[in-house]
Amino acid sequence: MICLKAISVIGAGTMGRGIAYTCAAHGFHVTVHDIEEKALKSCENYIEEQFQKAIEKGKISEFDAERAKNSIVYTTNIKQAAQSADLIIEAVLEIMDLKIRIFKELDQYTKPETILATNTSTMSPTEIAAQTNRPDKCIALHFFNPVPKMKLIEVICGLETSEETVEKCFAFGKAIGKECVKINEFPGFAVSRMNCLIGNEAMNMVMEGVGSVEDIDKAIKLGLNHPMGPLELADLVGLDTRLRNMEYLYQTLGEKYRPCPLLRKYVKAGWLGKKTGKGFYEYK
C-alpha cells in the first residue's frame, strides 16, 4: 500500500529531529528544513548520536547507519525541501498563524499528490488545511516525545481528509515501527486533552502545597503506573509549549483547562524545563 518514499520534515527542533531520525533509520529518504543553520547543525549532531547509540546496542549495522545518514539532506530552502517530497511533516511551534503560513508555502511548492501533515498536539487540521488547495491531502500526525522510543502516532482527520490519505499515513506509521490510532478532530484530540489535565492538576497541587514536586511525580508513577511523572514530563515537553497548549485548550474547551498560575510564573521567569536547565526540576 505504501508509496511514500521521500519524507520532508519542516522544523529541526526536538520533535522534528526525532521524526527525521526515525524515518531515516527505517529506510526513508529524508530532507530536514529549518530557517536557522544552527538548528540544522544541532539536528545533524543529534541524529549522529542516535545512530551511534543504535550501533553500540546492536540495533543497526555501521554500514546501514552510514547509508541512512547519507540519505538525509539538511536545508534552509523550503522550496528544495518541498518539491520532491511524498509526505511533508511540519513540526514547528504550536502557533496557528505560523503553521498556516508554512502550509500555504508548501502548497505552492509540492507535487499535487504530496500529503501535508502537521505534527500538532492540539490544533485543528481542518483550519490549517482550509488554507491550501488540497484539504483532502492534509492531516495531523501527532508524534510523541521522544519520537524514537514512543510507539504511538495519533492520526487526526480534518473535515475533508480523504480515506486514501488516512490509509497512506497508517501504512507510513507501520513502516516506521509505530502504532496508529484514528482520532476525530476535536481540540486536544485524545492524548493531549488527558495529559494536559493531569499535568495542570499536578502543578496546582504543587502550588497548593499538597506535596513536593518529587513526591507528586512519584505518587503518579507508582500509583497509576505511569512511566514518567506529569511534572517531569512537562519539563521534557517544555513549559512554554505546555502553556501554549493549555491556553489553546482553555480558549476552545473552557474553564477546566485554565493554565495553572505557577506554570505562567515559571514561563515568565524563563524556567522552561529541561531545555533551559530549570523548570520543576533543575538539570545540569
From TrEMBL:
GO terms for molecular function: 3-hydroxybutyryl-CoA dehydrogenase activity; NAD+ binding. Pfam families: 3HCDH, 3HCDH_N. It comes from the Bacteria. Pathway: Lipid metabolism; butanoate metabolism. The keyword NAD applies. GO terms for biological process: fatty acid beta-oxidation. InterPro entries: 3-OHacyl-CoA_DH, 3-OHacyl-CoA_DH_NAD-bd, 3HC_DH_C, 6-PGluconate_DH-like_C_sf, 6PGD_dom2, NAD(P)-bd_dom_sf. The record marks 142 as: Important for catalytic activity. NAD(+) binds at residues 11-16, 34, 94, 99, 121, 145, 275. The keyword Iron does not apply. Coiled coil: none annotated. Residues 7-185 form the 3-hydroxyacyl-CoA dehydrogenase NAD binding domain. Residues 188-283 form the 3-hydroxyacyl-CoA dehydrogenase C-terminal domain. Keywords: NAD, Oxidoreductase. Belongs to the 3-hydroxyacyl-CoA dehydrogenase family. This is 3-hydroxybutyryl-CoA dehydrogenase. It comes from Thermolongibacillus altinsuensis.
